């Protein structure tokens, strides 16, 4: 099969580490099978529109090395779409969604709903009070055509809803296995909103089909939407793709990973000096491990090994200590010249030769590159300390100063080579003592 995967984030201005894992797994799966990987921008929720978010998303994908075959790219700062199945930005596809929502209306599989948001809120409140599932009560599903036409003619605001049929809805998830839900548990989902934009549900099904997506790989939080999507696939006459829902990413206390407990934005990690290759390695192992004990993998290794059957069902804990350790391993392994280049933004004023020497010592102690700023002070600034602490038991201040100056002179008199060997320095000091 010619595999096609996609990563379709809603542009929020930053990339969540969970989304990075989703993008990576889609990338790895497509590359493993010699298939195509698509970036699509899901921006139909206009109330959440963030200026510049698409550009920032594309840049982050590039920095992370997640090359895609189709989708929006940046050329001289402008968004340019690459690929034959575009547009890849959903807000430019509204005519397409209108066409499919009309098909559903014509088939009797969708209906106009004129209920006001006040009425819907009231309905939900009543259902909650009565401990019933909160669902639309289908008031508008029985309106006759003349009534609907008259209200449309009068420009009454409306949404278009899916008419959910009763009966079992079945699908197979590549991670979780076979799942069956009864249609009676599914709400008559809104497909087109009052502003003329589609909801996520209609847009995702139409686009995945038209873009030839064969495997839908995404976070577990979307699994409850699949029954609605399955109905849409059926009613639109589209074949079902394969679904794979990835386990949640959790805080160490097993709550869902959230901003409150620390950084979640990939851009923030990059800003602190986590290396893209280390972040990729780290997120790859949140839910998948090719061998179980090995921890360091190149993208190529991951690509060779990646397999949906190997994805875990249970949530993966985001352990920052482990990320720090892993990033440290990647820092240690960098060539000195490469390390110097990457550290430069965090230490712009330090002389290059001096910085090189400092890094030779410090590289084993860095968990992320921006830490160099704190470590530099030791080399570039006179230390501040309480002089009393240098006075040895039976000596006095003048004596301590004399002896320490003697050690200082001794150090200066040793050749540079002496500093390559602890023994040489130790020997010289012992002799002095
Ligand atoms: N736009 C959705 C998101 O923000 C995409 C979900 C999906 O992959 O279907 O994650």
Number of helices: 16
What count of domains describes the coordinates?
4
Radius of gyration: 30 Å
What proportion of the residues form beta strands (DSSP E)? Answer: 5-15%
Average pLDDT number? 94
User: What is the approximate shape?
Assistant: elongated
Gap from first CA to last CA: 77 Å
Low-confidence stretches: none
Q: List the helices and strands in order.
A: EHEHEEHEHHEEEEHEHEEHHHEHHHHHH
CATH architecture of the largest domain: 3-Layer(aba) Sandwich
Structural class estimated from helices and strands: alpha/beta
Q: What percent of residues adopt helix (DSSP H or I)?
A: 40-55%
- How many beta-strand elements? 13
Strand order across the biggest sheet?
5-6-9
Which fold name corresponds to the CATH topology of the largest domain? Rossmann fold
Describe the model.
There is one protein chain. This protein is an alpha/beta fold and 433 residues long. It has helices at residues 17-32, 53-63, 94-107, 117-129, 145-153, 200-210, 226-236, 266-272, 276-284, 299-305, 320-332, 336-343, 352-362, 372-380, 397-413, 422-432, and strands spanning 4-7, 36-39, 71-75, 78-82, 110-113, 159-162, 168-173, 177-182, 190-192, 215-219, 242-246, 249-250, 316-317. It has a three-stranded antiparallel β-sheet with strand order 5-6-9. Strands 1-2 form a two-stranded parallel ribbon. A two-stranded antiparallel sheet has the order 3-4. Strand 1 (4-7), helix 1 and strand 2 form a beta-alpha-beta unit. Helix 12 crosses helix 13. The longest helix has 17 residues, at 397-413. It is elongated and about 105 Å long. The model has no long low-confidence stretch (mean pLDDT 94). The site of glutamic acid has 8 residues, from helix 6.
């Amino acid at each position: 099969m010619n595999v096609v995967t996609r990563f379709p984030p809603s542009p929020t201005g930053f990339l969540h580490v969970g989304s990075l894992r989703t993008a990576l797994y889609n990338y790895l799966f497509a590359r493993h099978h010699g298939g195509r990987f698509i970036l699509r921008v899901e921006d139909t929720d206009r109330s959440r529109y963030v200026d510049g978010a698409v550009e920032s998303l594309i840049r982050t994908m590039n920095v992370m090395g997640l090359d895609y075959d189709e989708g929006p790219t940046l050329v001289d700062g402008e968004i340019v779409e690459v690929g034959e199945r575009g547009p890849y930005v959903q807000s430019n596809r509204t005519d397409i969604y209108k066409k499919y929502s009309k098909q559903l209306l014509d088939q009797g599989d969708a209906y106009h709903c004129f209920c006001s948001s006040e009425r819907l809120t009231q309905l939900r409140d009543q259902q909650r009070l009565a401990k019933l599932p909160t669902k639309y009560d289908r008031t508008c599903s029985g309106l006759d055509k003349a009534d609907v036409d008259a209200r449309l003619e009068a420009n009454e605001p409306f949404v278009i809803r899916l008419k959910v049929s009763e009966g079992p809805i079945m699908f197979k998830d590549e991670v979780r296995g076979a799942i069956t839900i009864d249609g009676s548990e599914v709400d008559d989902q809104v497909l087109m909103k009052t502003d003329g934009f589609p909801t996520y549900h209609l847009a995702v099904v139409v686009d995945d089909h038209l873009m030839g997506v064969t495997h839908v790989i995404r976070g577990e939080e979307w699994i409850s939407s699949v029954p609605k999507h399955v109905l849409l696939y059926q009613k639109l006459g589209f074949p079902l793709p394969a679904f794979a829902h990835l386990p949640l990413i959790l805080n160490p206390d097993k709550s869902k990973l959230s901003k409150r407990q620390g950084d979640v934005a990939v851009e923030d990690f990059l800003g602190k000096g986590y290396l893209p290759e280390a972040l990729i390695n780290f997120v790859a192992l949140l839910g998948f491990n090719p061998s179980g004990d090995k921890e360091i993998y190149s993208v190529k290794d991951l690509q060779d090994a990646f397999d949906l059957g190997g994805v875990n069902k249970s949530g993966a804990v985001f352990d920052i200590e482990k990320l720090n350790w892993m990033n440290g391993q990647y820092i240690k392994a960098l060539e000195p010249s490469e390390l110097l280049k990457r550290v430069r933004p965090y230490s712009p004023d330090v002389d290059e030769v001096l910085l090189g020497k400092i890094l030779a010592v410090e590289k084993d102690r860095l968990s992320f590159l921006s830490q160099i700023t704190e470590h530099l002070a030791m080399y570039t600034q006179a230390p501040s300390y309480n002089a009393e602490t240098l006075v040895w038991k039976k000596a006095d201040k003048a004596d301590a100063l004399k002896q320490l100056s003697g050690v200082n002179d001794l150090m200066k008199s040793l050749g540079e080579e002496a500093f390559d060997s602890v023994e040489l320095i130790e020997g010289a000091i012992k002799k002095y003592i």
